[in-house]
Specification:
This protein is α+β, with helices and mostly antiparallel strands. The protein folds into 2 domains: about 1-35; about 40-185, Cytochrome P460 (Chalcone isomerase, 3-Layer(bba) Sandwich), CATH 3.50.70. It is built from 2 helices and 8 strands. The protein has helices spanning about 1-30, 150-155, and strands at about 45, 65-70, 75-80, 85, 95-100, 110-120, 130-135, 140-145. The strands form 2 sheets. A 6-stranded antiparallel β-sheet has the order 1-2-5-6-7-8, with no helix packed on it. A two-stranded antiparallel ribbon has the order 3-4. The chain starts with a helix and ends in a 38-residue tail after the last helix. Bound molecules: heme C (HEC). Heme C (HEC) binds near residues 53, 96, 132, 133 and 176.
């Protein structure tokens, strides 16, 4: 009796294991997991602007923001003249930390990260960039496949009210704060 019982338990276990295997296989087929898009060390990268970003912008209220970019991004090209176009190389990552308040203390941490990753041949790219929101408490990254982010960032490609304001209306590769331009910026109250 005992022997029969354990044999059937074992059979059930095997069936369960097989079902689990099939389930995880099916799940991995449905959505192949992407490797982490924004590496952990991004806070050691250089800033794209020295402007203090604590003034309100649409969608973010007045939460304090810090923008950093990987080294690759700083090799971007800029054509001559005020309307000379700007292009960032493939592999550029721009990561913007968003804090919970407009004036965080030295020990306060950002709650959210939004990022742009230049990947023109990726099917999920919009305007040549992947648009990512990362929940910093869980580490979960969500790729924005609609046009919510890119539609607003298209304003960076013409004159706009932020940072340098892009008065020449240069194509700026969807980036508002192009390094080196903000010397002409009126730092706050732009919006
Ligand atoms: C309604 C307009 C708007 C929307 C929508 C928007 N952004 Fe932005 N974003 C801005 C502005 C303005 C800046 C300039 C920096 C600042 O003041 O925070 C910016 C800056 C950034 C930057 C730094 C690079 C730069 O352009 O200077 C990143 C990265 C970024 N946004 C990611 C995102 C992602 C990802 C989304 C979608 C989830 C998104 N943004 C949606 C307006 C917007």
């Amino acid at each position: 009796m005992k022997r029969d019982g354990s044999a059937s338990n074992c059979g059930m276990l095997l069936a369960c294991a097989a079902a689990l295997f099939i389930a995880s296989y099916a799940a991995s087929c449905a959505a192949p997991p992407r490797p982490t898009l924004v590496p952990d060390g991004y806070r050691s990268w250089s800033l794209t602007t020295n402007v203090r970003l604590d003034y309100p912008i649409p969608g973010h209220e007045d939460r304090y923001r810090v923008i950093q970019m990987n080294e690759k991004g700083f090799t971007f090209t800029r054509a001559e003249g005020p309307s000379g176009r700007v292009d960032f190389p493939e592999g550029t990552i721009i990561a913007k930390d968003i804090f919970p308040t407009s004036n965080p203390g030295p020990t306060d941490l950002p709650v959210m990260l939004t990022a742009m990753i230049k990947a023109p041949s990726d099917p999920d790219a919009r305007g040549g960039w992947l648009w990512v929101i990362k929940d910093l408490s869980s580490g979960m990254e969500t790729l924005q496949k609609g046009d919510f982010c890119v539609r607003c960032h298209a304003n960076a490609n013409e004159a706009h009210p932020y940072g340098s304001k892009n008065p020449g209306g240069a194509f700026s590769d969807y980036v508002f704060f192009v390094p080196g331009r903000q010397s002409a910026a009126s730092s706050t109250g732009a919006y």
